Amino acid sequence: MHIRLEQPKDYREVENLTREAFWNVYRPGCTAHYVLNQFRTNPDFIPELDFVMEDSDKIIGHVMFSKAEIKLDDGTVFPSWTFGPISIHPDYKRKGYGLKLLKYALEKAKEMGIGLLQMEGNIEFYKQAGFDLASKLNIHYHAEPRDSEVPYFLAQELIPGYWGNREGTYCPPKGYFVADENPEAFEAYEATFFAEQSGKAERPQKEKAFQEGQLPQFCQSCGMPLTRIEDCGTNADGSTNFDYCQYCYKDGRFLQECTMDEMIEHCAQFVDEVNKNMPKPMTKDEYKQMMRGFFPMLKRWRK
User: Fold this and answer.
1) How many other C-beta atoms lie within 10 A of the C-beta of residue 282?
2) pTM assigned to the model
3) In degrees to the nearest 10, what's the CA dihedral of 39, 118, 17, 50?
């Protein structure tokens, strides 16, 4: 088993590996391979921490790192970092290769002076590499209530004391949202994977699905949780749209023409329903304030 830096000749193979590794894992379908495709030219990309793992010259794993930042409560920005996607070929999963690749990359990151990492993932895996709930470090997640203990939002100080006693809110790098911001370009890129000929039979189109263990999915218009096909809207051809709920999107169009502020005002009337799943009930004004921070990150309202 060998770990080395990724090279341009690896790009397509690594992107296909990422697609295979993440399909229906954290969300219905996968966008991580497109993020990777676009991120290599992003100024936040860290080429010195872009690793592949090989077994007999076959790439079986990959991880990349990115610059990030945390907005402190005093309004200033604190430098930080994140990583992902980290991918292991399905045939090599649950055999320790992912943890080996991650620990190797974390050690290299520490040698470069990277002091703090935060990311979204399964704590049962990442705790083996030293990660814990980010809320324990007073780092809040942009898409969740400030006082929530978000089970999938994790962090680790690689350099003890780097974070100190600060408090702030993290949002993933803008480059991680490239598929949402450029849906037509993403669909064209995605189509190349099941129409591509490589001396093999044509790859069949994969089916998107909700599965247990995925990260929370939200309507990209109103923020409603999406947990099953029946929650979702529909495209013009009648197929499922996994970005929007049935109340916001049907037959390829939005059911309401409104501004973001009007949508927030509409959603605020459901605060009592939302409070049933909250550790601490919110007032209507508190809920609207939370949505003002969350909604600009949703696909429909993102600028």
Assistant:
1) 18
2) 0.80
3) 60
